[in-house]
Amino acid sequence: MPAEQEMGLGLRERKKLRTRATIREQAMRLFAEKGYGETTVEQIAEAAEISPSTFFRYFPSKEQLVLVDDLDPIMIRSFQEQPAELPVLTALRRSMEQAFADLSPEQFDREQARQRLIRSVPELRAAQLDELQRTIAMLADGVAERLGRPRGDIESRAFAGAVVGTILGVLDEEHDFSLDRMGRALDLFEAGFPFDK
User: Do residues 162 and 169 lie in contact, with contact meaning Cβ atoms separated by under 8 Å?
Assistant: First the structure.
């Protein structure tokens, strides 16, 4: 979570966020050193100086530690705060750009490492589908709310799915996430994918 947003929280909430960040940081370090499959929850807990039961209070599983995207709620909140007169796609682009601009270089590097890990571990790649469905539902609800439409309406769901799919389409083993690639993908989306030009 960006430091500015953490400042508005109470001491207890800040401590929880820091513990959660430490768990994730130690887990990612161990995954890089030992491999995802060879790293246990007990090893992560020991490295983070917590008990395994405390680990499970923060993450339901080792898999979810990697898959849960902490940026999604931040982007949706920023999206909802964009000026009402902005077109939906413009508001969404600004919220994505803002969320990544607020990350420190270290936080951005950690997000890149998380994405690479998901792409490199078959069980994480397969499990990511459920997480993507949650992302699409969260974005669709934000779009519907912004446009005064009922939650779950098909247009908002289709839009959210198409945007998420467009962004995912430019990520692969050779290309890490970057705002430039995201922007180019959304330019194509906005232009209706003019392949004849």
Answer: no
Cα–Cα distance, 29 to 43 (Å, whole number): 11
Q: Is the pLDDT of residue 168 over 70?
A: yes
- Report how far apart, in Å, the C-alpha atoms of 19 and of each of 47, 48, 50, 127, 157 are: 12, 8, 9, 25, 34
Q: How many CB atoms lie within 10 A of CB 75?
A: 21
pTM of the predicted model as reported, rounded to 2 decimal places: 0.79
- Identify any residues that bridge with 175 across adjacent strands, giving them in sequence order: 172
HSE-up of 108 (CA within 13 Å, CB side)?
13
Q: Give the separation between CA 188 and CA 195, rounded to whole angstroms.
A: 9
55: number of Cβ within 10 Å: 22
Measure the CA–CA gap between 97 and 169, rounded to whole angstroms.
18
What pLDDT is stored for residue 4 in this prediction? 46
Tell me: the pLDDT tens digits for 8-18?
678 888 899 89
